[in-house]
Amino acid sequence: MAAEATPRINARYLEQFTNSTVRILGRVTSLRGESATIDASGSIQLHLNRDAHLTLNNAVEIIGKVQPDLSVKVFQAMDFGSNMDFNAVEAVVDATHRYKEIFYYAD
User: Fold this and answer.
1) Residues 6+ positions from 12 with CB-CB distance below 8 Å
2) Model pTM?
3) Are 76 and 68 in contact (CB under 8 A)?
């Protein structure tokens, strides 16, 4: 069985990936109980699981499913600390979608 592709996206691509599992790397801008907001070239609302331990202002990589309201249900979260080059992150996201045949199958 092949593993499900998890393309890297940011806020600009949420609508294109509704009901899909994706990877998002962003900066944590707010934490409120079982929800959080990250900045990934725009604001994204997250619905956290019990295993997600985020730190305000740190970079975090999320693997989750984009919901119909464009929020993301988090399956896994990994803290990447406070020293992240978000220009490089943007370049990777752009390359992912420019050369999508390498990274995921588009409908």
Assistant:
1) 41, 42
2) 0.88
3) no
Helix (H) / strand (E) containing 24? strand 21-32
Closest by CA to 62, choosing from 3, 17, 9, is: 9
Q: Residue 98's CB: how many other CB atoms inside 10 A?
A: 9
% of the chain residues with pLDDT over 90: 77
Nearest to 61 by CA among 9, 2, 17, 4: 9
Angle at 38 between CA 29 and CA 20, to 5 degrees: 165
31 forms beta bridges with 36
E strand intervals along 33-100: 35-39, 43-47, 59-66, 72-81
Residue 70 burial (CB count, 10 A): 13
| H or E element, residue 22 | strand 21-32
